Amino acid sequence: MAGMRQSLSLRPPVRVAIAGLGAIGMQLAHSLDRGIPGYRLVAASASDKDKAAERVGRLSRSVAVVDIGELEPLSDLVIECAPAKLLADIVGPFLRAGKSAMVLSCGALLDHDELLAAARRYGGQIIVPSGALLGLDAVTAAAEGEIRSVRMITRKPVKGLIGAPFLLQHDIRIDNLTAPKRVFSGSARDAAAGFPANVNVAVALALAGIGPDRTMIEIWADPSLTRNTHRIEVEADSASFAMSIDNIPSENPRTGRITALSAIACLRKMTAPIRVGT
Question: Beta partners for 218?
């Protein structure tokens, strides 16, 4: 065992790139800069390179700020924290090089089957952290048997949903709500298309369980809330369970603070001497 621990400690650190330096990306950058065993932040990209260079310039270690297409040659793992429309451009080169990509905009994976195909063909890996959700380990375990149904009810403060494409397409006004309003009911696939910046959690749940077409979701806009809340109800042959979580929003009201912490925990788990949970 001592020899194994020594050999692990002698491995070179995983070179990490971050694509997107918003609230989540910068929290990850600071955590990596402070030190996560087994990793070293080496590169970053953002739409505004000058602003990105200023931000990473405050870190204790030098980080190259480059275009998205230049991230892969510099690093072994990319963490995607960018707008969903950039997912394929960020993740594709890493998967085709047999490398890993941690995806936070996992809802966009449903529109890019070629990414999963590339991971299979070239030996790359797509990593989806739990994000703002809980219980994915239980759902994954239940999926080894038979899951009969998965339902999620998401309630968000109004400002966390304003501007969602589904609301604009159906002319649903929520800015003057005085009571909770259900704005969507349907599959996780349709929810991801209509609320691409709001319900990545629904797709993570779907990928862990019975898929995006059988995973059902309700989305509520609630003017009384200050937190993003999710309740999951699962019926399976191995267990029936329900879980709920109230997430404190980050600087971006569409995303909970726990999302970045989940990515950090996922990184630690990938190199930890002991892994707890499925």
Answer: 153, 185
Q: In what order do the strands lie in the sheet with 100-103?
A: 64-65, 39-45, 14-19, 77-80, 100-103, 125-127
pLDDT tens digits, one per residue of 57-94: 999 999 999 999 999 999 999 999 999 999 999 999 99
Enclosing H/E stretch for 40: strand 39-45
All domains in the chain, ordered by first residue: 2-132+259-271 (3.40.50.720), 136-255 (3.30.360.10)
Active-site positions read: 230
pLDDT tops 70 at residue 207: yes
Q: What's the rounded Cα separation, in Å, for the pair 71 and 134?
A: 31
Distance CA 233, CA 147 (A): 11
Euclidean distance between CA atoms 146 and 37, whole angstroms: 38
